[in-house]
Amino acid sequence: MKFFLDTASISEIEEAVSWGVVSGVTTNPTLYAREGGKLAEFHAHIKRICDIVDGPVSAETVTLTRDEIVAEGETLAALDPHVVVKVPTMPEGLAATKALSERGIAVNMTLCFTVPQAILAARSGARYISPFVGRFDDISEDGLEQLGNTIAAIGNYEFGHPVEVIAASIRHPQHVVASALLGADICTVPFKVLGQCVKHPLTDRGLESFLADWEKVRNS
Ligand code: G3P
Asked: Is 169 in the pocket of ligand 1 (CB under 6 A)?
């Protein structure tokens, strides 16, 4: 499983990339707004992320008709070869995904909640599909069960192009564990969750005792 970082924060991306574990970045309008993002700086911000990350960077479209989404997607894709155009799962989104993928532009179909949505996304040409886990949990449904069903269903078929499932809307390390066990190709995680995944109290305790014992060796 690859790790993507689910953020628009430059400092978080720089730090996580320095750990050598980040294969890509996913952003969305909420994450950009959270960074105090300005409309006029959006394209430069995406380009800056692409310069830091050696991998796919998802930038989301914010229009609702196929022609608008395609135009937006073409503009975003022209920013950098790493840009993946993120398109919401809806009929106009499917039509736009078909057009963009036919033009060689990679699409990450987002806001995907069900197996049929995922299969339709793949059929329309989406290179990546992002089932949301946490938002199901928010409404007392089992997001991981939906993720597992989606991975199994997508794995049953050939779509004529590579399709990778990105476990998204990840809220805690247990979601990461389950995503790996269910066979998600990619897990996109907030920086906080990436940090939680690295840490373990037994690691901290073990390091503390190794360093204490090494002090004895140094003083011998
Ligand atoms: O990138 C989209 C997705 O990961 C959103 O997560 O926590 O807002 O449901 P969340």
From this structure: yes
The atom of ligand 1 lying closest to the CA of 86 is: 1
Ligand 1 closest atom vs CA 135: 9
Q: What is the pLDDT of residue 128?
A: 98
Residues with a catalytic annotation lie at 86
Which three-class secondary structure state does DSSP give residue 79? Answer: coil
**Dist. CA 127–CA 123, nearest whole Å:** 10
Rg for the chain (alpha carbons), in Å? 19
CATH number of the domain to which 151 belongs:
3.20.20.70
Residue of the CA atom closest to atom 9 of ligand 1: 169
Q: What is the pLDDT of residues 196-210, one digit of tens each?
A: 999 999 999 999 999
- 178 and 1 Cβ atoms separated by less than 8 Å: no
Q: What's the length of the chain?
A: 220
CB of 131 within 8 A of CB of 118? Answer: yes
Please name which of 89, 90, 62 lies closest in space to residue 76, comparing C-alpha atoms.
62
Instruction: Specify whether the CB–CB gap between 164 and 184 falls below 8 A.
Output: no
Q: What is the tally of structural domains in the chain?
A: 1
Q: What is the pTM of this model?
A: 0.96
108 within ligand 1 shell (Cβ under 6 A): no
For 155-193, what is each residue's pLDDT tens digit?
Answer: 999 999 999 999 999 999 999 999 999 999 999 999 999
Task: Name the residue range of residue 192's domain.
Answer: 2-218
